[in-house]
Amino acid sequence: MRNRRTVWVGAVVAALVAATSACGGNSDEGQGVTPAGESSSLAPDLATGGYGAGAGADQAGAPSRSGPAGTLVLREDNKLGEIVTDSAGWTLYRFEEDSAKPPRTTCEGDCAKAWPPVPADDAAAAGGMDPELLGSVKRADGTAQLTLGGWPVYRYAQDTAPGDTKGQGVGGNWNVLAADGGKASVQDSGGSSDDAPGAGEDDAGSAPAGGAPDSGDEQTQLSAVKDPALGTIVADGQGRTLYRFDKDTAWPMKSNCEGECLETWKPAKPVDKAALKGVDPKMISTLKRSDGTRQLAIDCWPVYWFTGDKEAGDTTGHGVGGVWWAVTPDGKKANGGAPAKP
Predict the structure, then answer these.
(1) pLDDT in tens, 141-154
(2) 193 with 302, same domain?
(3) Which portions of the chain have biased composition (kind: Low complexity) (predicted)?
């Protein structure tokens, strides 16, 4: 009788843990934002938090990546055209999950360790920049962070030398800043950056090659769509098919697509649960990735879009390597994890 009672109690405890832990692992569903003052500051300890064991920390005798920016500098980069650095030459970045209108920062806690916010103190515009574009935003810990064109400004801890641009495109959410607060990109003959301050488009290079058309419904960020070969699958607000990866895990929720993998498979951004069509909001959660960015998950599976899909509705990523599958609204593999029906 005692053993039976022990088993019953253990089962109840396990059920409670499962019910209160959501997807486990790095899920940030329902957790809210960690105030910067609790785990980071404008001069964070970069040797903690799983971001390379201090690889990005300030070194003795090296210019600081956590102090005031001083007078900004416009520098010509071979790949990105004209970019913005601080007075010591450290590249400055913006985060696409922040906003410029109104200025708002969402990079807190471990994110701010990997991406040190630039203080607003002592910042001045570079020659050729409009001083009116410089401003500040108040962070959760009360400190003032520099903004450019309304966008909160950051450095990247893994840039190891002034002029490095290793943060460009990380997680599909981080972009080097252009002089107007837009995202730096390879310049056309017209010489303008790929967006204007406050623009809300996807990141530079985030659209599939050839340009995927919009889904036609700007209010819907996630939809269940009928595919003739795969059945009902999920597409994002641009009509791009979303995929799951067999090497990821749902419990604990974890993405194992890092490094070169991210050049081909882009983490889908979190969505507003009020902007779903044919997808149960209870299936939607958010994964906190190793670089501090957030990724959409369906039934605790991290989901991605495939750069090989050229147009909205393409499903060329289904079955790639035998490990990538279009995802259904309940988080399952489309077509049972089999290749597309002929």
Answers:
(1) 999 999 999 999 99
(2) no
(3) 188-214
